[in-house]
Amino acid sequence: MWDRAPNPDGNCETGLGVVGVFPHSEYDQWSILNRFDTNTLVKNEMHKFFLETNPDFKKRHESDFIRWIEENRNELFGPNGKYTEKLVALNKETIKSGNKREEFAVEVLKKRFKTSKVSRFCAGDVRDTKKGMDIAIRIKGVELTIQVKKFDKVASYVEDDGDTFFEVTSDLQANRYSEKNVDIFMFVSTDSQEYILFANKKTKIGQMRNNIVRFYEPFLMKSENINFTHKQKRKMKNFDPTYNLFGMDKNKLANLYFRKAEIEKQIAKMEKQMGKK
Fold this sequence. Notes:
Layout: E1 2-3, E2 17-18, H1 40-53, H2 62-71, H3 73-77, H4 84-112, E3 117-120, H5 126-129, E4 135-139, E5 142-150, E6 153-159, E7 164-169, E8 184-189, E9 194-199, E10 205-207, E11 212-215, E12 221-222, E13 230-233, H6 241-246, H7 248-276
Parallel strand pairs: 5-8, 6-13
Antiparallel strand pairs: 1-2, 3-4, 4-5, 6-7, 7-11, 8-9, 9-12, 10-11
């Protein structure tokens, strides 16, 4: 059971691992057991099993837990192990949800780019596990890679100094994904059938607290059923003594007039370019 997953179409380049037992899905050979090392739920459950059989663990060293894992490896990881199926079950729901999102994303992309090749990498593919590539799409000879994430909501904001941005509530940690590896973030909600895509441009992304990511440029594509609530994000106002001392109101107004003039120039330029197409 220790091998690489089969790769008939070039979309399944795995490293060595467990195959053929407790597979990710009906389409995959890569085993769920390969995910145990990165799953916190599994680690916690293993620790729970350990404490049940070693109640005096707190008086002992962590190396005892590691030794227990080694001694009970067949019960923890074997096909007929006492604990294996319980640990596999902890991964299944997460895997099922992730598969559903990626399948939905592939359908959306195929519908939008009918003549383009859309590839979804298999479970365990090193391009996914090491680089964050869930999907690749080839459009007019250019290959773009996509990381698919779930999201709870997205809103559009305008700052009082004229900045605009989108806020996406998601568990995405944007800094984990290099621009060299991932071109696009695709946020998906399979429950509401909503999706929205943004370019992975680090200078245009802000990672905030509470699972919020800000994108400071327009989205690439979105579903028709996403309707933004345009809000104004409030910054520190004139009660700040620093603002008062330096006359921020006059400077802010001058800046807004400057932005207005530049935006009008850009609008005219783009309208002219689009009119030629």
